[in-house]
Amino acid sequence: MQEATESKEKENMNVLFSTQKVIKEALDKLGYADEMYELMKEPIRMLTVRIPVRMDDGSTKIFTGYRAQHNDAVGPTKGGVRFHPSVTETEVKALSIWMSLKAGIVDLPYGGGKGGIVCDPRDMSFRELERLSRGYVRAISQVVGPTKDIPAPDVFTNSQIMAWMLDEYSRIREFDSPGFITGKPIVLGGSHGRESATAKGVTICIREAAKKKGIDIEGARVVIQGFGNAGSFLAKFMHDQGAKVIGISDAYGALHDPDGLDIEYLLDRRDSFGTVTNLFKETISNQELLELDCDILVPAAIENQITEANAANIKAKIVVEAANGPTTLEGTRILTEKDVLIVPDVLASAGGVTVSYFEWVQNNQGYYWTEEEVEAKLEKVMVQAFNNIYNLSRGRKVNMRLAAYMVGVRKMAEASRFRGWV
Ligand SMILES: NC(=O)C1=CN([C@@H]2O[C@H](COP(=O)(O)OP(=O)(O)OC[C@H]3O[C@@H](n4cnc5c(N)ncnc54)[C@H](O)[C@@H]3O)[C@@H](O)[C@H]2O)C=CC1
Ligand SMILES: O=C(O)CCC(=O)C(=O)O
């Protein structure tokens, strides 16, 4: 157990280190001095909390939680909360930096934030999860709020958890405060289109990337790692557009059918944690899934999946990163050498935070939009962001990850400079 935790922390150190390396490269290319990098390489604020939770058997368990605020020069910080057994402080730091980059890329008036709790919600009851969610908000309430730092869903959190968090925050502040959190149920001020927004954004990036590579979506073979919020909506959208989804996976294994999986059946049978492979006898591993012969590969689960150990064996022509941090720097280098087009996480997965921003805007103005309005606005933002970064990468002869970081840091760096921080 101790060994597993240490090896996870080592992986997360690499995730943070790699992110810092690309930020440094991006700032150098943009001509910023070293002090700017010193400011950007870590969150400006990092809170660790201990959350006592009364369990159903009467015992009390103490959980560890984090909230990182990377940079608030542009505006309040924003980003999801992850409930996962392997959450670490380093991982949350890296995730908060990626949120800042996403906000820059899709030009939102935010900096990046991120939270996490070390827990396994799959082993907790509904009421234990409610007590944990409320306890987390009580613990971080002084540093969050609609004009300070706005949480949202991420791995193993959902609209129900957002609803409990909102209710707890509103009780503490003694007024209804829907703009405190996004990804809420519609009846509590959630936005149409938020649930599917991350996958919608990924679908738009796949379409744009396929055009560049001359791949027709109709009949294209798609493999998706992860069948939760991002992965399952994506499978549906790709299937609806005539692509052949030949592989999907969850935390326990993967399914493969070269003729295309029965996506409607899988969507119907998946549980709320994105698990579905437990219903099948014949499965393959997540590693085998990534190496399947396909046109488009979408990692939509966790970090560090495409590495120097497997990148050479990846057969996809396009890799679109729905997950945060699924490809290491070595993995990126190997895929780039093989002429695989990588659409980086900070661009591909930015649809979620974009519609979260729309949700917050609707909460602030108290006037709500239709799903069609939300989707039209998201389409415009994602197409522009994709082409902006693609053109920069071609113009500056850098890969799309570095181009995305260059776009992502620019506004934050300028705002920090105008404020006189650097
Ligand atoms: N939900 C959102 O709006 C956004 C999510 N993302 C990123 O997308 C990725 C997936 O997030 P969601 O779909 O929201 O989470 P989710 O909790 O809805 O689904 C997670 C999926 O990943 C699988 N998984 C978990 N641990 C795994 C492991 N060790 N190996 C293989 N599969 C594993 C689960 O079984 C499940 O199918 C994460 O990296 C998240 O940060 C990025 C932007 C926004
Ligand atoms: O919707 C949001 O505010 C944040 C989503 C998120 O956590 C992410 O993009 O990784």
TrEMBL record:
CDD domains: NAD_bind_1_Glu_DH. Keywords: Oxidoreductase. Coiled coil: none annotated. SMART domains: ELFV_dehydrog. It comes from the Bacteria. Residues 191-420 form the Glutamate/phenylalanine/leucine/valine/L-tryptophan dehydrogenase C-terminal domain. Signal peptide: none annotated. PROSITE patterns: GLFV_DEHYDROGENASE. Belongs to the Glu/Leu/Phe/Val dehydrogenases family. This is Glutamate dehydrogenase. It comes from Alkalihalobacterium chitinilyticum.
